[in-house]
Specification:
Blueprint: H1 3-7, E1 26-40, E2 44-58, E3 63-74, E4 84-99, E5 103-121, E6 127-146, E7 151-165, E8 171-187
Antiparallel strand pairs: 1-2, 1-8, 2-3, 3-4, 4-5, 5-6, 6-7, 7-8
């Protein structure tokens, strides 16, 4: 073929392979208000009010992970005039149970540590004050309602396991029920939302 004729032929760009549909990791930030009903060793129960923040990432349709940090306190515990504080930091896997355009549900099991500080009854009939910094964990789940592709409202309920002193001065496990209401922001949320 003559060079003049070849020069007139249109140049076609090379074919690009199709991009396969899939999921990319999505980061979520949450912050909210917590209420914890905490059963203390040999001391009855206390209600703590506080804040909770979390960072989570979705790895696929059904699996993710989260970091959960919470602080809650109760004033004048057991009429002692002293405050009880709980600071927890937990991390672990998240499992998506169901999801739709507006509502998603999930379960999680997160482990880490907790610092519990405040008064406890002693063997002399009075009260002592100290703190216990021990391993902790929480298990539960919740539901999230989507306001938009990037903003949602989440309610979670957890069984919380921490440690504190009993009346003999020994550290024992204590059981708590924690409810958290939070606002969730999804960073870089795709048009097909994958929420946790």
């Amino acid at each position: 073929m003559p060079a003049q004729t070849a020069a007139l032929l249109p140049l076609r760009p090379p074919r690009e392979p199709p991009v396969a549909a899939g999921y990319t990791s999505e980061f979520n930030l949450s912050a909210g208000y917590s209420v914890t009903d905490l059963g203390m060793p040999s001391s009855g129960r206390a209600t703590l009010i506080g804040m909770n923040v979390g960072i989570s990432v979705d790895y696929g349709k059904r699996f993710g992970a989260k970091l959960d940090v919470g602080y809650a306190s109760a004033p004048n515990v057991f009429r002692s005039g002293q405050r009880l504080d709980v600071l927890s930091y937990l991390v672990g896997p998240v499992f998506v149970l169901s999801k739709s355009n507006l509502l998603s549900t999930y379960a999680h099991l997160i482990v880490g540590g907790a610092r519990v500080a405040g008064p406890f009854p002693n063997a002399n009939g009075g009260s002592s004050t100290s703190y216990a910094h021990y391993p902790a964990w929480a298990g539960g789940g919740g539901a999230e309602y989507a306001f938009s592709s990037s903003l949602g409202f989440r309610v979670s309920i957890d069984y919380l396991r921490t440690h504190f002193f009993n009346s003999s001065g020994a550290v024992r496990g204590q059981n708590g029920l924690r409810v958290v209401n939070s606002i969730v922001y999804h960073l870089g949320a795709p048009s097909f939302r994958r929420r946790r």
